[in-house]
């Protein structure tokens, strides 16, 4: 099959298109013919080696973390899916590889595709949807009447997070550029701040939850807008020791993450708030709950561009530029 791969970290010419063996289908796997693959900043971070200590991938590595497609084969112990099912997923770490014609996905990581979405729209959902679900529902336990600050509201995570937070009954504040203000308002944002002209720290106060996706300076400011007992959940770092324990890292890496997060943890404790790092995990059952919200019209995908398969490198470069409104997707077939 054809796939986009890297042969090592920081490839000079980006990913390369190659002919690779078809995936091996395990007894609990589903073989999916890829129709579309979402493109994420995580793909770039994997390519540059940012997560190589936590995720030591072997090469050559097929890239890609989001998939929507059709089941073409099932493992011997498969129960929930059959050939012909339209499905989508964020495959588990070490099982990625959606920039390809075929991928074998664990049954537990897979969900039936929302019937209301095209394959391209569905491929835009899994990684950002699961990230937001695990941040706002699992970790923050966001409740009706609470206030949440979602950074970068016009991005892939932001557009999904605003909609889910509003569904949960929260008051939502976000940052964006002037050009994207109407977009985030249409998704439900209550307080919209033009980050080029205004400092959110001078406007927001006593928030219950912050979903942090930006740099260290923004994180430090975000801690200060929380009320005592508030929670900041960061998807951009620094990773902490709790995260290291969750994924079973060795003692040395636990120590490294202790020092990486020490300043942030100290600042949070001094302010009487909570800091935690989130690196989302594959979870088909949660994706099924997201499907229900999409089919009910509660959450809609926000798409920017769809690139043909042969332009996978251009699609990743566009995501890396930071200009995307919502999600970027590669159409495979």
Oligomer: single chain
General shape? globular
CATH architecture of the largest domain: Alpha-Beta Complex
* Unreliable stretches covering 5 or more consecutive residues: none
Sketch the topology as an H/E string, one letter per element: EEEHEEEEEHHEHEHEEHEHHEHEHE
- Our count of domains comes out at 2
Please indicate the percent range of residues in DSSP E strands (runs of 2 or more).
25-35%
Backbone structural class:
alpha/beta
CATH class of the largest domain: Alpha Beta
Instruction: Tell me the helix content.
Output: 25-40%
Task: Walk me through the structure.
It is a single chain. The chain has 333 residues and is an alpha/beta fold. The chain has two domains: 2-125 and 301-331, Quinone Oxidoreductase, Chain A, domain 1 (Alpha-Beta Complex); 128-277, NAD(P)-binding Rossmann-like Domain (Rossmann fold, 3-Layer(aba) Sandwich). The chain has ten helices and 16 strands. It has helices at residues 41-48, 119-123, 126-139, 156-167, 181-187, 216-224, 241-246, 251-271, 284-295, 312-321, and strands spanning 2-6, 16-19, 29-39, 61-62, 67-74, 86-89, 102-106, 110-112, 147-150, 171-176, 191-194, 207-212, 226-234, 274-277, 303-308, 327-331. The strands form three sheets. Strands 3, 5, 6, 7, 8, 15 and 16 form a seven-stranded mixed sheet that branches. Strands 11-10-9-12-13-14 form a six-stranded parallel sheet, with helices on both faces. Helix 3 packs across helix 4 (156-167) and helix 6 packs across helix 8 (251-271). The longest helix has 21 residues, at 251-271. It is globular. The two termini are 13 Å apart.
